[in-house]
Specification:
By secondary structure, the chain is α+β, with helices and mostly antiparallel strands. It folds into 4 domains: about 160 residues, 2-Layer Sandwich (Nucleotidyltransferase, domain 5); about 90 residues, GIY-YIG endonuclease, CATH 3.40.1440; about 100 residues, no CATH class; about 80 residues, no CATH class. Helices cover about 30% and strands about 20% of the residues. It is built from 14 helices and 17 strands. The strands form 4 sheets. Strands 3-2-1-4-5 form a 5-stranded mixed beta sheet, sandwiched between helices. Strands 16-15-14-13-17 form a 5-stranded antiparallel beta sheet, with helices on one face. α5 packs parallel to α7 and α10 runs antiparallel to α14. The longest helix has 17 residues. It starts with a strand and ends in a 6-residue tail after the last strand.
């Protein structure tokens, strides 16, 4: 009779390569009853973020005197020897444990069962197979969600319900922790003539980010595309100086399929900042136009819209950026109306006499000396593009995933960008484990504007319930 090692971990984030385990629980089950158990906090040798503490209740102080992973590694090996590894969303738990052993110089391999996949086969009528939904469906009593042992006990209950259905478990082959979405094409020679273009036909006709490498493997160019194969082919048919430089230098192509264009754009921007490829010499200008302000000779704040590359005067301050001149003008007009500013101090050079707004009662008379520069500038200084702060709640922006079952998630908290990740559509209703998928990134005005522009066209987002905040 097989022994199942039912396992759950809590971590500092969603990346097995970057993040660390902070708690592990293992329960051995013979198919009818529990036969052994083990649980411990683990010191991750890094800081636990406030967001992870909110989810797990595990603080930096709690793990300060806990053992490190290498101190419990032997116990994990001994307990799971000759067992089948079982977890809910097993790729996550198994991937982290494999990576922890890899850092120690060991290979950890087990047969793996995922109770998410088994639940889909055993209970196809359920709309969601997240652990949260299954806990609710089977009325499972859980003391503390997102603590390792509590989630293991819940998973055992789910697993026992699955076993009662007498489905064929059929453990899969050894799980690979390599992401299928990032693959590699390796041409054999450096010259243009000998470059094996036919190998590029294996690149996907899909949306994502591609990386061009030189003979040493160094990334020399990064770009996002809605059709990776077509874009890479275009580089090798480009007769410009940039195209020829790529054709001589590039010997390797890697890629990452994202599904959604917004996610691809965010990854492109982050990866360029990270690797600084030598062929990405001119940063991509997502929003080339801006609303600028300066102080005129009378001390009044004057606004205008122009292409950013044409404004060189340091006294002309950038207030907001836009994809087109038309969008900038529309924004400025809206703000001028809302703040009751004078049209003589915007758009064009100053004009004499009263503006039309003064006759309609919108302008307070700055144009004819009825309002001081000090009073006028107090309102003028309120002109800004708040972008995502217009949303009074925290939310995930939804973007298309690599498959129909997946979706990309961008986390917005307090009007600021926090990072992106990939989740399962089944989990969107319960929010179970969604925060773990997020790869943290610092807030950035450009990224916020990319997300803001996306939301203007695609109102695809879900509000985060207060209980998860």
């Amino acid at each position: 009779m097989p022994i199942y090692a039912i396992i759950d971990i809590e971590t500092t984030g969603g990346s097995a390569v970057r993040d660390r385990i902070i708690e592990i629980a293992i329960v051995l089950h013979d198919g009818t009853k529990i036969v052994d158990s083990f649980e411990t906090l683990i010191f991750p040798a890094c800081t636990i973020s406030a967001q992870i503490t909110k989810i797990t209740t595990i603080t930096n102080e709690m793990v300060e005197n806990a053992p490190q992973f290498q101190e419990v590694a032997q116990k994990i090996v001994e307990m799971t020897e000759n067992t089948i590894f079982v977890a809910h969303n097993a790729t996550f738990d198994y991937g982290f444990i494999v990576e922890e052993f890899k850092r120690l110089g060991y290979t950890y391999e087990k047969e793996v069962l995922c109770t998410v996949k088994l639940s889909r086969r055993a209970f196809p009528h359920l709309s969601s197979h997240s652990l949260e939904n299954l806990i609710h469906h089977f009325n499972i009593k859980v003391k503390s969600r997102h603590r390792a042992m509590a989630d293991v006990i819940a998973t055992i209950d789910v697993f026992e319900h699955i076993l009662k259905q007498k489905i064929d478990l059929k453990p899969p082959l050894k799980t690979s922790t390599k992401k299928e979405s990032k693959k590699i094409v390796k041409p054999s020679n450096a010259s243009i003539v000998d470059f094996p273009i036919e190998k590029l036909r294996h690149l996907p006709r899909a949306c994502g980010v591609y990386y061009l490498h030189d003979s040493t493997g160094k990334i020399v160019f990064i770009k996002q595309s809605i059709d990776i194969q077509r874009s890479v082919f275009e580089h090798f048919s480009d007769a410009s100086s940039k195209g020829l430089e790529i054709q001589v230098l590039v010997q390797e192509v890697t890629y990452q399929v994202t599904g959604g264009k917004l996610t691809a754009t965010l990854i492109e921007w982050h990866e360029i900042q990270r690797f600084r490829p030598i062929l990405n010499t001119k940063p991509r200008e997502y929003f080339p136009y801006g609303v600028f302000k300066y102080q005129n000779q009378k001390g009044f704040t004057h606004f205008f819209v122009a292409k950013k590359s044409l404004v060189t005067d340091p006294l002309q301050v950038l207030c907001a950026t836009f994809a087109s001149h038309q969008e900038g003008v529309a924004f400025l007009k809206n703000q001028m109306d809302a703040l009751e500013l004078c049209e003589h101090f915007a758009y064009t050079y100053e004009r004499k006499g009263a503006c039309f707004g003064h006759f309609t009662g919108r302008c307070k008379g700055a144009c004819v000396g009825e309002e001081s520069a000090e009073d006028y500038n107090q309102r003028a200084n309120l002109l800004k593009n708040d972008l995502l702060s217009e949303y009074y709640f925290d939310f995930f922006v939804l973007d298309e995933g690599k498959t129909e079952a997946d979706c990309n998630l961008i986390l917005i908290e307090n009007g600021q960008y926090r990072g992106y990740g990939t989740g399962k559509r089944d989990d969107l209703k319960s929010f179970d484990d969604l925060f773990y998928t997020i790869i943290p990134h610092p807030d950035n005005e450009l990224v916020r504007q990319l997300i803001h522009e996306h939301l203007k066209q695609n109102k695809h987002f879900i509000e985060i319930p207060t209980i998860f905040i």
